Amino acid sequence: MAGVYSKEMTAAEVHKRLAKEKLYLVDVREQDEWEDGHIAGAVHIPLGQLGHRIQELPRDRELILVCRSGNRSGLACEYMEGIGYKVANMAGGMLAWPGSVKTGR
User: Fold this and answer.
1) Is residue 3 very low, low, confident or very high in pLDDT (cuts 50, 70, 90)?
2) Which CATH number is 55's domain given?
3) How many domains does the chain have?
4) Closest CA to 94 of 60, 78, 71
5) Which residues are known to be catalytic?
6) Enclosing domain of residue 37
7) Residue 25 belongs to some domain of the structure
8) How many whole angstroms separate alpha carbon 65 and alpha carbon 79?
9) Cα–Cα distances in Å, from 21 out to 10, 13, 42, 71, 92?
10) Does residue 92 form part of some domain?
């Protein structure tokens, strides 16, 4: 189960929007997954650390949550929306990402 939340965007939609505007992406995958390839400019907060690091994220703008396939980011969306954040899940996650990725830390 990927959680219950209000908004979802495809990876293609995120990619298209990112070409035109600055988006706030939050990658909730584990460190090794992040290092294998992530979207440049994304913030990395593994799902297991999200509750402890939530104050690092702005409440005044939409956050797009990303993981490998969309399941963990869906859980993160459910949690964050429940405490008042405006969020969207990137459906399909990095498996569906059509753009380039940055490797390493």
Assistant:
1) low
2) 3.40.250.10
3) 1
4) 71
5) 67
6) 8-96
7) yes
8) 12
9) 16, 12, 14, 25, 21
10) yes
Judge whether 89 lies within some domain: yes
What percent of the chain has pLDDT above 90? Answer: 92
Query: Where do the H-state alpha helices sit in 54-96?
Result: 71-82
Pick the closest to residue 89 from 6, 18, 20, 1 (CA basis). 6
Say if residue 1's pLDDT is above 60: no
The structure tokens 């035109």 sit at 20
Q: Determine the Cα–Cα distance for residues 13 and 63; give it in Å rounded to an integer.
A: 14
Rounded-to-integer distance, Cα 101 and Cα 105, Å: 12
Question: What confidence tens digit (pLDDT) does each residue in 40-89 have?
Answer: 999 999 999 999 999 999 999 999 999 999 999 999 999 999 999 999 99
| Structure-token match 């380039």, residue found | 100
Q: Model-level pTM? A: 0.94
